[in-house]
Amino acid sequence: MKSPFVRTLSSALLFGLTVIQSTAATAQTYPVKPIRLVVTFPAGGAPDILARLFSEKAQLGQPVIIDNKPGAGGNIGADIVAKSPGDGYTLVMGTVGTHSINGALYDKMPYDMVKNFSPISLIASAPNLLVVNNDLPVKSVPELITYMKANPNKLSFGSPGTGTSVHVSGELFKSMTGTSMTHVPYKGRQFAIPDLVGGSIQLMFDNMPSALPMAREGKIRALAQTTAKRSPAAPDVPTMAEFVPGFEATTWFAMFAPANVPKPVIDKLNAEVIRVFRLPDVQDRLKTLGLDPVLSTPEELAKYQAVEITKWAKVVKESGAKAE
Predict the structure, then answer these.
(1) Fewer CB within 10 Å, N side or C side of the chain?
(2) Are residues 199 and 56 in the same domain?
């Protein structure tokens, strides 16, 4: 006759084996239905471009459906995913805003940027591009700073939402140059750009993939990019640090799932993200847009996110920026 200890141990081992077998089976069969990939901004911006590239190229046996849920600096879409079941069927194209900046900027966050998500992979990073209305009488960063100091609070800068890297880049610029201007948040860049071209707002630190084609067409004027080194996509555009030493604001994009998604499912998604974004035609497309492919393991993304949260909390505090 087995002792109670042996019976308990046997039951525990059997339960553990059942869980392992169930998890393995889940990974083998996943996915059995379409996957919803939430984009926290409107169509046309860098997060949407990346999500649609993944949707077009993914070979998971089920379609990846893009669902644009903009608003509140990306918080609305990210919150939907944070509160979704941890089964791998709802994902989010996270941004530096939704998963690093917003926690410091908003007094009340609807989700925890770390605890409510399972990291999958970094995907890409990019500079923001300081672009101005063509009628603004400045053609360089020094000229812009001089103009702003002579005309305090005369200029307005737009962003696709409070807490985005576009917004915080502007706040960092104000802080580091001792200038003042008014922030005008929109529900997405597609609403801000017509106002920039028309002159209702005068400047913007837009994501390079969105802004560079318009600057090349002459619709707006590019003054500087915000990464430490010039992007190969725009070698003729100086960095902000060339005029404002120490200025750096990189925007990044990464895929996350809700918390508690089984590791085999996360690993399967990670492998597919890496496969898709290593395809030569996808890499060529990203480079043309000014996006730098940056792929990672889930663990590397978690570590990077932790560093970014600390970095941006310091920037937000020093700039005094707050969600309106």
Answers:
(1) N
(2) no
Contact 261, 118 (CB under 8 A): yes
**Identity of the residue numbered 248:** E
For residues 119 and 131, state if they share a domain: no
pLDDT at 9 over 80: no
Number of domain units in the chain: 2
- What per-residue confidence (pLDDT) applies to 289? 84
Cβ atoms 222, 208 nearer than 8 A: no
Residues 6+ apart with CB under 8 A from 160: 41, 42, 45, 70, 166, 185, 186, 187, 188, 189, 191, 192
235 shares its domain with 260: no
Structure tokens at 240: 């902000």
DSSP-derived secondary structure for 197-215: HHTSS-EEEEEHHHHHHHH
Asked if the model's pLDDT at residue 324 lies above 80, the reply is no
